[in-house]
Design brief:
About 35% of the residues lie in helices and about 30% in strands. By secondary structure, it is of the alpha+beta class. It has a six-stranded antiparallel beta barrel with strand order 1-2-5-4-3-12.
């Protein structure tokens, strides 16, 4: 009895192993009916088999998790690369569209001699809107030359150096442009306005109350004044209101050019 008490754990382990081997032999033999003993042993060993299956699955999941993590990392990198490529294509398409527009402008403005220039600086303080260009006297640019983009009128050259020039835009409070309403062939003046400056808009004045102007009308340069050639798009009319004197109309003008994003311009140098 002392032997059994001292070695009961070992004895139990040996018996359990023997039972397990017997069950496995029955299973290998492929007997359809295992009998009472086999059923009893199966019931006893089922929890152990479940635990073993759990640990096996955990081991497999651990290996699969590493594979899944590596695959997930690879797919994320491919997604980032694809998004960047799509962004590059989009930027390239926009740049191509801009270049086409600039080329079309050159073709449609053969009566002008155009000098392309890049905007390298801006001054937008105290209702001032001035662009600095990377071209100057050495490129044929002179003071009061008109400046345009493929969208429309930018302004005029206010000062110029050997390899730089400054352009006052049409939203600057000192700017004034002779304009024409194309639809009704009516003349007016478009100028910078302190109240509209923050919106990037201009003011339109010298229009009589009998005028037939309406919101959406397109304004172009009239050619009067000797600075801006005739027919360059300025923008479109937005709101219209009566002047405080009751004798004329005032209107806001949305320029065709977005001055917050101008990067390339053309200077008319002839």
């Amino acid at each position: 009895m002392n032997f059994f008490r001292d070695h009961k754990n070992k004895i139990f382990l040996i018996l359990a192993t023997i039972i397990f081997v017997i069950v496995m032999m029955f299973s290998a033999a492929g007997k359809p009916n295992a009998g009472i003993v086999s059923d009893t042993v199966g019931v006893v060993l089922k929890p152990f088999q479940s635990v073993g299956t759990y640990f096996v699955n955990c081991f497999r999941y651990g290996k699969d998790a590493e594979t899944f993590e590596a695959e997930n990392t690879r797919l994320k990198k491919e997604l980032i690369a694809a998004n960047k490529k799509a962004s590059d294509y989009d930027d390239l398409a926009k740049e191509n569209a801009k270049l086409r527009s600039m080329l079309e402008l050159r073709e449609s403005s053969k009566e002008f001699e155009l000098k392309a220039a890049s905007v390298i600086g801006t001054d937008t303080q105290n209702w001032t809107s001035v662009l600095k260009l990377d071209k100057g006297l050495s490129d044929g640019i002179k003071k009061n030359d008109a400046v345009i983009t493929e969208s429309g009128l930018v302004g005029y050259v206010s000062s110029v150096g050997r390899d730089w020039s400054k352009v006052v835009t049409i939203i600057d409070v000192t700017s004034s442009v002779g304009a024409k309403v194309d639809r009704i062939d009516e003349y007016c003046v478009v100028k910078g306005d302190a109240d509209l400056y923050s919106k990037g808009f201009c003011a339109m004045s010298y229009v009589t109350t009998q005028s037939k102007i309406s919101a959406g009308d397109i304004l172009t340069t009239s050619g009067e004044g000797g600075v801006f050639p005739e027919g360059i798009i300025i923008g479109k009319i937005n709101d219209i209101s009566s002047n405080t004197n009751g004798l004329s109309l005032d209107a806001t003008v949305e320029p065709a050019v977005d001055f917050s994003s101008v990067g390339e311009v053309f200077v008319i140098i002839n």
